[in-house]
Design brief:
The chain is of the alpha/beta class. It has 13 helices and 12 strands. The protein has a 7-stranded mixed sheet with strand order 9-8-7-6-10-11-12, with helices on both faces. The chain has a 5-stranded mixed sheet with strand order 1-2-4-3-5. Helix 1 (about 5-20) crosses helix 13 (about 390-410), helix 6 packs across helix 12 (about 360-385) and helix 12 packs across helix 13. It starts with a helix and ends with a helix. The relative contact order is 0.14. Bound molecules: glutamic acid (GLU). Glutamic acid binds near residues 170 and 338.
């Protein structure tokens, strides 16, 4: 498989070309400002220590501090982190929040660590990157396999060196400066986005069957919120397999089952299916909420849904895009559909800087405004210029960053 970064850079290059960006600016935006690669040593519970590789990549900060999550996953690589750092730049620009883009992670399977080892890993990684981040420099957050608890350990570790400052990292538990509504924000943002599209098409919620690939934080919250709104969530899956029920599953019950057993598989009120089969399931909306490259040139022709909602980062490859377009499938791109998390991270950062705690309704209504505006802008641009939603989203994101660079005089 080719480089994910080269693939995602292709989406950017298309937008840069359409916008007629000047060559040196085009090059500046297609490469990263800084890449930090660190060794993390973790003393193990039963003696000795293990060495892990961690990264923090900062892509662009023309619009504000670098911003983006930290993931703990065995597949983490520099190429992968570069891909997502760049995606974050376009995502924060599209959401119109005052941040640039960054991403980080550690190559590790956190499921193989004890709680105490996980804490030592989180703290060790934060010590290694602390000099390169900060509330006005680069603000990390949760991502795949990283939780509010991990953010709390990292914030605490940072504060040992630089003094307490909750705005250094977002996605923290509420008791240490987290925001109400942050946990559900990525799922809620995707739901807001889908709602706009469904309304635009004149569909009924009750007849809009949704299948969700990926049942982590984003996927499970999205399922819960959509079901509360009246959408039938007919199938969900995780890395171990999937479950299907014609009349819909109860997402909260599935989540409880997953918490108890480690997987959605075996949930009583549903049929077990192969995890991969969810891609080709008969439904109106397929949500890809797990890892990158879920829909590819190999399996895109199996998609039966009319809408693919990219709640994860880079879940659909450039090879899959034309195949889906040919089949009349609308893809709601990641930099839009997954923007709810970072939007509420922004609201958390604002609250932390002001030492305020907003009510959840206030957070959710600001999220609706930010997400609603971005969705409307993307749909309008796609309509007026005859573009796909991805092309329109990239045009808006790249254009905003380019404008900021020009206004600043490139430094
Ligand atoms: N990891 C999330 C994303 O990919 C959130 C990032 C953030 O809140 O900074 O958008």
């Amino acid at each position: 498989m080719g480089s994910a970064f080269e693939a995602v850079r292709g989406f950017y290059e298309q937008a840069a070309e359409k916008l007629g960006l000047e060559l040196s600016l085009r090059e500046a935006l297609s490469t990263h400002a800084r890449e930090v690669s660190v060794q993390v040593r973790v003393p193990m519970d039963f003696g000795g220590f293990k060495v892990f590789r961690g990264y923090r990549v900062q892509h662009n900060n023309a619009r504000g501090p670098f911003k983006g999550g930290l993931r703990f996953h065995p597949k983490v690589s520099l190429d992968e982190i570069r891909t997502f750092a760049m995606l974050m730049t376009w995502k924060t620009a599209l959401m119109n929040i005052p941040f640039g883009g960054g991403k980080g992670g550690v190559q590790v399977d956190p499921k193989l660590l004890s709680e105490a080892e996980l804490e030592r890993l989180s703290r060790g990684f934060m010590r290694a990157i602390a000099d390169f981040i900060g509330p006005q420099v680069d603000v990390p957050a949760p991502d795949v396999n990283t939780t509010p608890q991990i953010m709390a350990w990292m914030a605490d570790e940072y504060s040992r060196k630089y003094g307490p400052n909750p705005a250094v990292i977002t996605g923290k538990p509420v008791v240490v400066g987290g925001s109400l509504g942050r946990d559900a924000a990525t799922g809620r943002g995707s739901a807001i986005c889908l709602e706009r599209l469904v309304k635009f098409r004149g569909w009924n919620r009750e007849d809009t069957r949704v299948a969700i690939q990926g049942y982590g934080n984003a996927g499970s919250w999205l399922a819960i919120i959509l079901r509360d709104l009246g959408y039938p969530v007919i199938a969900v899956s995780d890395s171990k397999g999937g479950v299907f029920a014609e009349n819909g599953v109860d997402p909260k019950a599935v989540l409880n089952h997953k918490k108890a057993t480690g997987s959605v598989v075996g949930f009583v009120d549903a049929e077990t299916i192969d995890g991969d089969d969810i891609i080709g399931l008969d439904c109106e909306v397929l949500t890809v909420a797990a890892l990158e490259e879920a829909v590819t040139g190999e399996n895109a022709d199996r998609v039966k849904a009319q809408v693919v909602l990219e709640t994860a980062n880079y879940p659909v490859t450039p090879e899959a895009d034309p195949i889906l377009a040919e089949r009349g499938v609308t893809v709601v791109p990641d930099i839009l559909a997954s923007g709810g998390g970072v939007a509420v991270s922004y609201l958390e950062w604002v609250q932390d800087l002001q030492r305020e705690q907003w009510l959840e309704e206030r957070v959710n209504s600001r999220l609706s405004e930010l997400m609603g505006a971005a969705t409307d802008q993307v749909m309008a641009r796609a309509e007026s210029e005859g573009l796909s939603l991805r092309e329109a989203a990239y045009l808006i994101g790249v254009e905003r960053v380019a404008e900021a660079e020009v206004a600043r005089g490139y430094r």
